[in-house]
Amino acid sequence: MWIFSVQRRCFHCSLSVTKKLKGKTATEQRWVLRQLKDPYVKASHAQNFRCRSAFKLLEIDDKFRLLQPGYSVVDCGAAPGAWSQVAVQRINSAGTDQGSPRGTVIGIDLLNIPPLDGAHFLSNHDVTDPATHGKLQELLPRGRAHVILSDMAPNASGFRDMDQEKLITMCLSLIDLAEKILLPGGSLLCKYWDGVLSHHLQEKLSSVFSSVRTIKPDASRKDSAERYFLARMYRKPVK
Ligand SMILES: C[S@@+](CC[C@H](N)C(=O)[O-])C[C@H]1O[C@@H](n2cnc3c(N)ncnc32)[C@H](O)[C@@H]1O
User: Which domain of life does the protein's organism represent (predicted)?
Assistant: First the structure.
């Protein structure tokens, strides 16, 4: 009986996998199979996160305690919104915990970001555009943030060096953003793809933050060049 029910479950399972693979190219099929096997994808469905990347931020925040109740947080490259979901929980911006101060989460993306209780989204906005910086200053309490998060990534062209350089340029623009909105002592967490220019970004960050470390969370796929710089204790540059 037990064997029969397992066989039946497997039969249904393989039927739905076959359905998911139907009409897809070989590359798309590989992607679907990898998603189906990924424990973080399964956990994100179970815990209602919008995507698996939530677990990277949860892991980093569990270790480094970046996000505190009452903080103001800017989430760059926020779509579909999983990091913002984590930030809303951790800084209490939906006011769920009445005994703790209520924070602010502002998410920005070139794409549309579906609404989320406790977050204010600037969809169809470019993080590197000074006009977006102006809007952020208006929206943030006293125009300042405690933390800037960036999981931004450009559309991959397939040319590794070119994509890496693009992402580094986007990360460098976050240093300009920090100068406008980040509180002294604040933190910046940004994703980059490891390569020849990573060191340049690290040096630039080190010139305005007292501590800069590299992080590769367990939830980040092992075969990916993805890394994060966690820069802490912001010092506004003297001009
Ligand atoms: C890996 S996804 C972010 C996932 C997100 N952290 C989450 O947990 O849901 C990267 C995002 O960066 C966005 N992006 C890329 N360049 C951008 C830019 N210049 N300004 C704003 N968003 C950008 C992309 O549109 C994409 O949605």
Answer: Eukaryota
